[in-house]
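Dear Dr. H.,

I hope your travels went smoothly. While you were away I took the liberty of generating a structure for the chain from your last submission, since the lab meeting agenda had it listed for discussion. I wanted you to have the full record in hand beforehand rather than looking at slides cold. The sequence, exactly as received, is reproduced here:
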Amino acid sequence: MKFIRKEFITTTIFDKELTERDEILIVLKNLLNERIDFSLTMRKCMAFQQDYFDMSFERVRVKKINEDDTVDLLAFKKGAKTSMKNVSINHLVSIEAITKKHRILDIVSDLDRFDLLDL
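The corresponding predicted structure, in token form, is as follows:
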């Protein structure tokens, strides 16, 4: 019999303020390539009010990264799909991605080197 145990481990692996354009694009490319859903907070400027407002989305996926430092996004909420095109990376305030870690248990409870590695 094969027994696989899956658990969600919520641990903060990386928490850093990204300011460089290249770093932000690397994160967005990794999210696009791995097809990871994430939560997003955006800040948008209202031109007629001269004020900012924040928008939060619980489940977002990168659709395309454009050459002019903009990104196309898909947001899902309660069965509705919202497509956002040409969102500037300067409007992105925070991205929170949760990934999964899977381990296969053996009968022996001793730790081996694979249990210590974060694969």
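Two observations you may find useful: Confidence is low (pLDDT under 50) at residues 102-107. Residues 19-98 form one domain.

With kind regards,
E. W.
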